[in-house]
Each structure stands twice: as C-alpha cells, then as structure tokens.
Amino acid sequence: MGGNNSQLRVDLAAAFRLAARFGWHESIANHFSLAVSDDGGHFLLNPWGLHFSEIRASDLLLVDTNGNVVEGEGEVDRTAACIHGPIHARLSHARCVLHTHMPYATALSSIEGLRLEPIHQNATRFYDLVAYDDDFGGLALEVEEGERICAALGNKSVLFMANHGVTVVGPSVAEAFDDLYYLEMACRNQVLALSTGQKLKPMPEAVARKTAEQWRQCWEPETHFAALKRILDREQPDYVE
Hints:
Helices cover 43% and strands 15% of the residues. With 241 residues, it is of the alpha+beta class. It has an eight-stranded mixed β-sheet, sandwiched between helices. It is globular.
C-alpha cells in the first residue's frame, strides 16, 4: 500500500470492520466506497467475496466510475459498480458512500409509506437531509438503476431505499459513518416505539429544526470515529495492513 490515499484506505477499512462489529453487514454483500479524486472519477471499494470483518486497507480496490479495476486484486460487485459509480460521478457532496442493509433502517424501509419521524433527538440530526426512494427496481445490475437511485438521493445525505436498505453519503468516512451510526440508532428507537402499539410523539417542527442546528454546532464526527478506531487498534489491528 502506498501513495497519498493510504490514510483514506485505513479509514474505509475501519468502517467495514466497525459495521461488522455492530451487525450492520449482510453476508458478503453490501458495499462502501470512498473517492480519492476531487471529481469522484476514482474511488476505493471493497472487492467481491470478502466479509466486512476481514477487510484490510490493502484489500480495497481502486476503481473508476464504470466499475473497472484500476488498482488491486479482485472483482467488483456488479451492484456496487452500478450504485456507487453514478453517485461518485454526479454528486460532489458524496465523497464517501455507505450502502448497507442494517437491521432497523431496513425495517423502516420495508413499511409502506413510513418516514423517519422526529421522535428522538437522534432523529433530528437528519432534519431535511433524508430522501426516499419508494420505487424498488430490483437488484441494481444495470447502470440505469444506479442512475435512478442517484437521482432519488439528489442533494441529501441519506436515502431510504424501499424494499432494500439505506445509503448514506458524506464528505469523509468519519462524517458518513457517524451519520450511519446515528441513523441506525434513530431507526432502532422508532422501530421499538412502533412495537409498543402506542402513538408516536413527534416534536414540533421548530424544535426539530433547532435541535438539528444544535447537533451541527456541537458534535464532532471525527472525534467519535477516532474513538472507534482506537477500539480496532486494540482488538483488530490488522485492519490497517
């Protein structure tokens, strides 16, 4: 491993290991990517066949937006190429793209017309940052499906994908992963609240907006991600290899 993307590789490898620790992975499916060029034309991506829990920095492929391997050994998951390629090519705010079928977010995406509600302070982090794709088009095996998904995401940071899962994007691994973490926590709270059969208690819009602004003023995603990486440094230090 070398070049100026070494730290980018380490951060993305950490995201895979952490997702596996939290139970957000699914078999050898799902995929995370990170652009290494300002135009999004080249990005790091996990190779097909590796479990999230075994991915190392050196395992990551460098690919272009057409899904061609530029550097590294392994194959590109066709669905990863079709989803991540258009997003990196077209959305400048999506430097890091995390696509997963994590349990609680996916549960909400499986309910007709359901939306993430501002019933807890964690949910307010995503005030006006969530898009919804209510039209599942099958496995993303064609670029056209990836382009449709990209259009549905638009300028938002989170896309709930009906009958599928969720995609979270951000300007760095730390920021995208922090959002992924709090999104699952917010979804877990909503699923548990729904399971009581009682009426949800959304906060007023003004309060939700104010709390979202407070999150942005006081929270530091990099500090959270650094703490998570320290756990990996102690318990799974091979992720940096």
